[in-house]
Amino acid sequence: MTTTNPNLKKLFVSDTFADMIKNKLMKKMEAHQASNPQKELYIMAWGDTTQPLAPKVVDALVDAATKLGDRSTYTGYGEFDGNIKLREAICNNYYKPRGIDLKPEEIFVSDGAQSGTFGLQDLFGLDNVIALQDPIYPPYLEANLLAGRSNIIYLECNDHNNFVPDIPTSKVDIIYLCFPNNPTGGVATKEQLKAFVDYARSHKSVIIFDAVYSAFITDPNIPKSIYEIEGATECAIEVGSFSKTAGFSGLRLGWSVVPCALTLESTVAGELNEMFRIGQSIRFWGASNLAQQGGIAALSEQCQQECQEIVNYYLENARILKEGLEAFGLTCFGGTNNPYIWVKGAEGMSSWDVFNQLLFKAGIVGVPGSLFGPSGEGFLRLSTLCSRENIEKAIDFAAVVGNRE
Length: 405
Ligand code: PLP
Prior knowledge:
Layout (H helix, E strand, L loop, with lengths): L5 H8 L3 H19 L6 E2 L11 H14 L15 H12 L11 E4 L2 H8 L9 E5 L4 H9 L4 E5 L17 E5 L11 H14 L2 E5 L25 E6 L1 H4 L7 E4 L13 H13 L5 H10 L2 H27 L3 E4 L5 E5 L6 H12 L1 E2 L1 E2 L10 E5 L4 H17 L1
Parallel strand pairs: 1-11, 3-4, 3-5, 5-6, 6-7
Antiparallel strand pairs: 2-8, 7-8, 9-10, 10-13, 12-13
Helix pairs in contact: 1-6, 3-10, 4-10, 11-13
This protein binds pyridoxal-5'-phosphate (PLP).
Pyridoxal-5'-phosphate binds next to helix 5.
């Protein structure tokens, strides 16, 4: 008898994040729209980018596509760990200006942080104790459940700890950290990250650090990479992406850093890096050569400026929305150094109450915080990766409704 993967089957019958979005959130939104066809909806639910690519990235893509259409410049498969020019650009133009010294062989290009983090699953045994921030970007939990890991503990993030958890009180093997954080909008200081690095080094644990939103950090005192913390290359893997920093969410490009200095009790220096290389060579034939040319362009000095202007546009969205909602009487977190606003409902309100309140009163659609974990209960996540028009119209409408009450 052919059997199915029992871990996937378990996830299939439980409520995954994607299922909850599709079967509950979308249905509520559509029902509201059907009974209020004259009312506009301001959708701030999706963490997806909306603004066009930087002109220099577009030029590089057109050039790369033209070369693919010419026999003399056509290229097929590339290196499975990524175009060397892109890996060099990640080292020299992304990490080096932050005082971080990495070698191209420590960078593994992926088609986005989603598959980048998923690929890391191959590195670790199923008996490891995993610590996840709560609330958490759901695929981290679901990827571990799918792999068959069940030793999971949660590190609570709330408004009392500014959405940065305390270090674990017991021994854990793998710690997932995401800063700037999706969904809470939280950021971690150097001291807070140092506490995690110190913990990981002394317990021989591994940190998996998601730096997908690094470009949103404008405060020079907030680290953009875990490797800004001394000793982090001995204990941390970092996942990066061009999705939010350069608008590649559809084009697809990211990377994972597995430093040669990273060691476990059971491995010697360089072994994990080599193991990941072998895993990647089995699972992945390389990111799109077109996307990689776009990534090389995005990391050029001139283009980094163009990309940052797009990020600044979203940051201004976040500023306008947060100020507007606060004027409307709502308690909001995040929205600075981060495109997400984490709205706290009034005492006793559930996440779905907050969702309904903003939907029914102002036509604003967010994602209930409870879908990101138990500590998200009572909150709603709003993404400001949408258009300015959406933000301004939503605020006008929210203000009208607010004044009427
Ligand atoms: N990590 C976080 C925290 C995210 O919010 C997202 C996407 O929204 C990803 C990873 C996936 O990014 P990518 O588009 O690079 O796969």
